[in-house]
Amino acid sequence: MSSLHISLKFALVWIFLAAVVESAPLDPAEEVTDFYQLFNNPDAQLSLAKAPTTLDYITEHGYPAERHYVTTEDGYVVSIFRIPYSHNLHNEQQQRPIAFIQHGLFASSDGWPCLGPDDALPFLLSDAGFDVWLGNARGNRYSKNHTSLSTRHPKFWRFSWHEIGYYDIAASIDYTLATENGKRQKSIHYVGHSQGTTVIFALLSSRPEYNAKIKTAHMLAPVAFMDHMDDFMVNTLSPFLGVNNLYSRLFCSQEFLPHNDFVLALLYNVCRPDSVVSGFCNSSNSSNDNAAREGRTNTTASTLLTGVFPAGISTDQILHYMQEHQSGHFREFDYGTKRNLKFYGTDTPADYPTDQITAEMHMWYSDNDEMAAVEDVLRLSMTLPNAVMHHMDDPLWDHGDFAMNWEVRKYINDPIIAIMNEHEEANTQ
């Protein structure tokens, strides 16, 4: 199941509950429901106390791993993980080209190494001689720190994927280039999945000077324009959350499905077969689709992520995507006319000038991607001066396959590494 689907389905549940609450004012004399007690089924014993970290996922396979803390221009402290060299190559004394990998919505760096050393992109890159970095967006389990704000302060959660790109990715790229291995390098290779593509589009168009810091960029299931997305959940939610109204105002600037024991218990109980809303947990609307997809996903990796997913996001990230779907634009966050005038000096936010993205952008897309419609990918690509298209031939290849398909090494990871190596060879002096 894609991370975006999960967020949208539970957002719909949230809207339903909000509507019920709004239509039924609480009697002060009534006993207030203890929702933790309601959903804390004793049979659900998932706990975060022993949840592994990205360091664990890496070191259990013998690879060296490091955790670094990066402070952004606006005060957020994000964690990025590193595989500095390959224990198989013993190449720590050599200069190694930098590869930076960014996760999608609702995820974290945990998702990348879970496929194991034979298939996971971080390990394959390390064994190909790269200095590998795994990014984390502000607000997830690894990036809930700020130089002056607590996560309980409402201003902490006032960010969308625009800020993740504009600040987090920019600071992380600069940090990798400032390390001892990066000092003699001017640019990196970038890989992003889903929201990991959106944030680099936002960065490179808003701060075009960062194009010079990108050797090659690989967009797995690229998400920017969304008006051709024909997804039931998105079509249901965007009229409520994609415009400035009561629902979007109630939903904005807060942590959504936080990474804690309560949420794990909630997910367990909501997704039980006898739950009245268990249908929201199904990744497909058709049993035939499920049958066709059986055996395509690396279930071992999915199981490893059970205790660390969802990783935590701001509701504004969802709102921003809903705005894209509703408006047909790829543009900055829409605060409503009054606040737009304050922030931007105009009634509406400006479109991202994607024609300013001059880096070599490799667009990996498919016909069956429920989140990134082919029409929208092609529309974006037409604006990119150096777009290289990689269409997946498999008619069943969907949004999640770019990260979790059993053959992701053959069709995605190995070709990406070959492109990076070709670039390095062509630019070796």
Ordered list of secondary-structure elements with their pairings:
Elements: H1 3-23, H2 35-39, H3 54-59, E1 66-71, E2 76-83, E3 98-102, H4 121-127, E4 131-134, E5 145-146, H5 161-178, E6 188-193, H6 195-206, E7 214-220, H7 232-241, H8 246-251, E8 255-256, H9 261-270, H10 287-293, H11 299-304, E9 313-314, H12 315-327, H13 337-343, E10 361-365, H14 374-381, E11 387-391, H15 401-404, H16 408-426
Parallel strand pairs: 3-4, 3-6, 6-7, 7-10, 10-11
Antiparallel strand pairs: 1-2, 2-4, 2-5, 8-9
Number of strands: 11
Strand coverage percent: 5-15%
Alpha carbon gyration radius: 21 Å
- Order of SSEs: HHHEEEHEEHEHEHHEHHHEHHEHEHH
Structural description of this entry:
Helix 1 packs across helix 7 (232-241), helix 5 packs across helix 6 and helix 7 (232-241) crosses helix 12. By secondary structure, the chain is an alpha/beta fold. The strands form 2 sheets. Strands 1, 2, 3, 4, 5, 6, 7, 10 and 11 form a 9-stranded mixed β-sheet that branches. A two-stranded antiparallel ribbon has the order 8-9. The longest helix is centred in the first third of the chain and has 21 residues, at 3-23. It has helices spanning 3-23, 35-39, 54-59, 121-127, 161-178, 195-206, 232-241, 246-251, 261-270, 287-293, 299-304, 315-327, 337-343, 374-381, 401-404, 408-426, and strands at residues 66-71, 76-83, 98-102, 131-134, 145-146, 188-193, 214-220, 255-256, 313-314, 361-365, 387-391. It has 16 helices and 11 strands.
